[in-house]
Specification:
elongated, 371 residues, mainly alpha, 0% strand
Length: 371
């Protein structure tokens, strides 16, 4: 009797062991299938990752506004549509207003330059006269050889005409890709607004984390994205104001308009407001106002350009309590890896890494307490 009971217990232990092994094999098999499916989904979505990530970033930033639409309307579908249209309008209207203002200013600038060249007998004599003044200035400054500005300009025009067709084709292709990405981004944004809570609940049911841990990750990532947007806006306001002040002090037309243009260009990595103050300095230089041209170049490179490296890390670190040097490296690395989106992805990756390390530290502390 005891022998049979012992045999039954051994068989039960063997069955439990085999069942445990089967569960492990089954789980590993499911994980492998999930990784394979995730890789296939990544390959499918890879061409559209930037507009999808853009939509997610916009959804996080504008989600409080979306909640107001939900409370005001009640219908989640209509609220998502209103939120998407609101985002679209807030992004497009400033560009339209600035585009109209810049078109007028550039037209006026062309008329001024045309009138100035007409006084010297046309563009040819005007360029020759400007080239002569520039040669005298360079010779007095650094004893440079004579510079034929007209020949240089004609050579650049010749090269530009040779590559105009290729550049036009590339520009058309980029513009078409931009339109497609924009449509995908706002199409995705609508569904993120509408189905965001449901998608989050599904993710919470799958991810093997405690509800409190997942919620902390969500809050930390959302806070970092918002701080990155605030940092970008702070940089835009700072660089726009610095550009406008410089133009006003130097007597350049429409400093407010050009300050607004510099603020918008500040969102472009590497180039930024230099697209505004750089050509302005060149025009001052060509016009013979070399002192103001040098002042604008020094101000642009030494003050306006460095504002991004000071203001953005400071604002983000104040919002999410990161070390400013870590933010600075995350911004530079993010831009190099992801372009414009890197300004947001870099800090988010840093926040995610810091939050995960905190969770791992807490798990280790719990294990030590249990033991």
């Amino acid at each position: 009797m005891e022998h049979n009971l012992s045999t039954n217990q051994d068989q039960s232990r063997l069955t439990d062991t085999e069942s445990s092994r089967w569960r492990i094999i089954h789980y590993i098999f499911l994980v492998i299938l999930c990784l394979l499916a995730a890789w296939l989904v990544y390959l499918i979505a890879r061409p559209y990752l930037k507009p999808i990530l853009t939509a997610i970033l916009l959804a996080v930033v504008y989600y409080p506004l979306h909640l107001r639409w939900v409370r005001a309307i009640g219908n989640p579908h209509l609220a998502a549509l209103c939120s998407t249209l609101t985002v679209l309008l807030t992004l497009i209207i400033p560009f339209i207003i600035l585009g109209v203002a810049l078109e007028r200013e550039l037209g006026e600038l062309y008329r001024v330059l045309n009138a100035q060249s007409a006084q010297d007998g046309g563009w040819g004599p005007w360029l020759a006269n400007t080239s002569e003044r520039l040669n005298h200035w360079l010779h007095d400054l650094i004893d440079a050889p004579p510079l034929d500005l007209q020949a240089i300009l004609l050579e650049q025009l010749r090269k530009a005409s040779l590559t105009a067709f290729e550049d036009a084709a590339t520009l058309l292709s980029n513009f078409a890709a931009f339109i497609v990405d924009g449509v995908i981004a706002f199409f995705t944004l609508f569904f993120v607004f509408r189905d965001g809570p449901e998608l989050y609940d599904r993710l919470a049911a799958i991810v093997p984390l405690r509800p409190g841990q997942l919620e902390r990750l969500r809050i930390e990532i959302g806070r970092t994205i918002t701080a990155s947007v605030y940092g970008g806006l702070a940089v835009a306001l700072t660089q726009g104001a610095l550009t406008g002040v410089a133009f006003w002090v130097l007597g350049i037309r429409s400093p407010v308009v050009w300050g607004m243009a510099a603020a918008l260009f500040s969102f472009l990595p590497l180039i930024g407001p230099a697209m505004i103050w750089g050509p302005a300095a060149v025009l001052l230089f060509i016009g013979g106002d070399w002192l103001n041209a040098l002042i604008l170049l020094a101000w642009g490179a030494g003050v306006i350009g460095l504002a991004d490296n000071i203001v953005r890390p400071y604002v983000i670190s104040e919002q999410v309590r990161f070390y400013p040097l870590a933010i600075f490296i995350a911004l530079l690395g993010g831009v190099q890896a992801f372009g414009l989106l890197g300004l947001f992805i870099g800090p988010v990756a840093l926040a995610l890494a810091q939050a995960l390390l905190t969770l791992i530290h807490e798990e280790n502390e719990l294990r030590r307490t249990d033991h």
